Amino acid sequence: KEIDPDLDKYPTFNDTKIYRTIEKLKNKEEVKIVGLGDSVLEGCSSSKKFNHEPYMDTFIEMVRDNLSSLYETTVNLKNLSVGGMKADWGCQVEQINKIVAEQPDLLFLHFGINDLGSQRAAIAYADDMESIILDIQTQLPNCDIILLSPVAPNSVLYDYDKMQEYVDYLKGFEETYDHVQLIDVFKLSLEMTKNKKYLDMSGNGINHVNDFASRVYLQA
Fold first, then answer.
1. pTM assigned to the model
2. What residues does 210 pair with on adjacent strands?
3. Which distant-in-sequence residues (6+ apart) come within 8 Å of 191 by Cβ?
4. CA-based Rg of the chain, rounded to a whole angstrom?
5. Is 67 in contact with 18 (CB distance < 8 Å)?
6. CB within 8 A of 196, min separation 6: which ones?
7. Which of 7, 24, 109, 188 is most exposed, with minimal Cβ within 10 Å?
């Protein structure tokens, strides 16, 4: 059926937090992106990752390629994401040092699915995420940060109310810290599942995005 979507529920362009990166792109300067997160940011259910047709890149690779094409400049990417990881892994000194070594202009952070699956308290997740933000802003003061809330996982297996608690903390970080922006994919995916089957958006039926949902991340 034909759907008239409520566009207020969808992310819109906002450069008030990551304007430094946007300015570099507009000036056709070289930009470096680093990703740190779990299997979703790693791209574990993209068709290319699984080596089958249509061999579509992960969404963060598509972010790199689309920004490079749109702004006609060089955009480099280093994805440090590892499947199965939680925010308490991401805030470890080893991961922070790897980010710092890359000297990114823009850092994508994507944690929460495995924290939620492990039934971690929202405050514990938030403390780890804030630790990453503070470490990066201290050691890389010119690095912009994008927080990605995870796409809604399978509601049979995951507690959406607790996930919303996670996202509320991320919203608070966006409000508190300069150069930190939230892209709320969780809210977006909840809106989409009102009219779309979850399995049409998932690569594994549990918590991974398929090629369609990867494009949703890219668009967001």
1. 0.93
2. none
3. 5, 6, 9, 10
4. 17
5. no
6. none
7. 7
Question: Which run of H or E residues covers position 37?
Answer: strand 31-37
C-alpha to C-alpha distance for 154 and 147, rounded to whole angstroms: 21
Cross-strand partners of 148: 183
Paired tokens of 107: 């850092």
Taking the C-alpha atoms of residue 60 and residue 77, their distance in angstroms, rounded to an integer, is 8
Which of 132, 97, 93, 96 is closest to 111 using CA atoms? 132
Which amino acid belongs to residue 171? K
Among 3, 42, 18, 59, residue whose Cα is nearest residue 147: 18
Q: pLDDT tens across 46-85, in order?
A: 888 888 899 999 999 999 999 999 999 999 999 999 999 9
- Residue 50: its pLDDT value, please? 82
3-state secondary structure of 31: strand
